[in-house]
């Protein structure tokens, strides 16, 4: 009798061990477990750690809750100002409701990828080329809202969206380079013209001071001679005072003195 009881206890223990081994499941820290019992959602989502399911009745699906990096294939489109561009992006998203991610959508990764591609083409058509090149932060926010709106119903939330690269045709690149070069040349000419204007104003002020003090012109002449002589040139050019030329010109234009006629002798 005792031997039969021991045999039954050993058999029961073995059956229990087999049952636990079959029913035991381990959910990792970054995962959540969703149990389907005979095809229907059973209970709440299983937290990380050790859990048990009914063998051959329950089926446990593990859903990764980590942030997923999903590259969006490059999309080619025409901007609002009729420029053909090729834009690629990257989407960062994560699952916030494991049950919805399995029940409401067949493959949430594929769904997010297709929605990102569609939204990216829509953003390209609504934006100008300058916005794609210099105002990406605003476009990233708009693209994130467009993807996040349907993704909420799938138990997925979009963490962020980034436009990686904007490819332009070679003809457009050359046109933009010529435009930038012309703009730099225009600014250089404006700066030179402004410098000439300021210099002319200072020269006019200097001429006014020299006209009041004629000796200042002679001093300036001597300074110029010293500056030219310091360069060790073989030829020295001396400026001739304009006042001296004007003096000589007035001297040449002066009428000659009339000779005194003597009265005839009687």
Summary keywords:
single chain, 266 residues, alpha+beta, three-stranded antiparallel β-sheet, 8 helices, 22% strand, rod-shaped
Overall description:
The structure is a single chain. This protein is of the alpha+beta class and 266 residues long. The protein is built from eight helices and eight strands; from the N terminus they run H-E-E-E-E-E-E-E-H-H-H-H-E-H-H-H. Strands 3-2-5 form a three-stranded antiparallel sheet. The chain has a three-stranded antiparallel sheet with strand order 6-7-8. The protein is rod-shaped, with a radius of gyration of 47 Å. The N and C termini lie far apart (199 Å).
Element layout with pairings:
Layout: H1 2-23, E1 24-27, E2 31-37, E3 40-41, E4 49-52, E5 58-64, E6 68-78, E7 84-95, H2 98-103, H3 108-126, H4 129-134, H5 136-151, E8 156-167, H6 170-212, H7 214-229, H8 242-253
Antiparallel strand pairs: 1-4, 2-3, 2-5, 6-7, 7-8
Spatial shape: rod-shaped
End-to-end gap = 199 Å
Instruction: Enumerate how many helices there are, as a single number.
Output: 8
Name the helicity range. 40-55%
Number of strands: 8
Assembly status:
single chain
Structural class: alpha+beta
What is the H/E string? HEEEEEEEHHHHEHHH
Order the strands across the largest sheet as they lie in space: 3-2-5
Q: What is this entry, summarized?
A:
Helix content is 53%, strand content 22%.
